[in-house]
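thought: user wants a sequence for this fold. calling inverse folding tool.
action: design(structure=
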């Protein structure tokens, strides 16, 4: 049965450690490795009516290890890779600062989440954030989003609504826990 999602539901993802393998201070396209289950995970979300976005800390810029252009090229590479599978992201938002900068846009601070909500119409109650770090779950919590943690290399956060080592299992959980509108009423899928 075809269903219609309410409003403007989003799944926003972290980049490093979630969509791609975690590499400390990633600064080169040659270091990018797409997670093995990323394509089928994102297709599952898109087929269920979600829009996708990416919010990521990229302190390599603030540390002088990469330029904004280099990070943009990496993001475009990732975006182009997924677009070959008809997977499109509505946005890529990054924080270029180091922790020492104490900015408002570095996760777990909610600055970039607020930008996404204002600019792209995300709704707190209908937004999921998938990331690998405890700070990602704190970020989701600060915004009132549901936090989903990929725990392959990290300790599970008590703020996570769900955690699993598999992005695909996480995507299935999101789909199964989203409220949908069927003709004649609202139900959990």
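)
observation: tool returned 189 residues.
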């Amino acid at each position: 049965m075809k269903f219609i999602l309410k409003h403007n539901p989003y799944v926003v993802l972290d980049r490093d450690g979630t969509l791609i393998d975690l590499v400390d201070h990633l600064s080169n396209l040659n270091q990018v490795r797409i997670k093995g289950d990323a394509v089928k995970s994102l297709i599952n979300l898109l087929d269920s009516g979600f829009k996708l976005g990416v919010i990521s800390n990229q302190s390599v810029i603030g540390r002088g290890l990469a330029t904004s252009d280099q990070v943009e090229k990496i993001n475009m590479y990732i975006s182009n890779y997924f677009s070959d599978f008809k997977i499109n992201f509505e946005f890529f938002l990054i924080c270029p600062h180091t922790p020492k900068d104490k900015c408002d846009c570095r996760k777990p601070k909610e600055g970039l989440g607020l930008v996404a909500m204002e600019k792209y119409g995300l709704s707190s109650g209908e937004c999921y954030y998938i990331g690998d770090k405890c700070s990602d779950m704190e970020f989701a919590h600060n915004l009132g989003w549901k936090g989903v943690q990929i725990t392959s290399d990290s300790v599970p956060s008590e703020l996570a609504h769900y955690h699993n080592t598999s992005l695909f299992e996480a995507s299935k959980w999101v789909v199964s826990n989203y409220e949908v509108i069927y003709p004649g009423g609202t139900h959990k899928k």
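thought: summarizing for user.
answer: Here is the designed sequence. The chain has one domain: 4-188.
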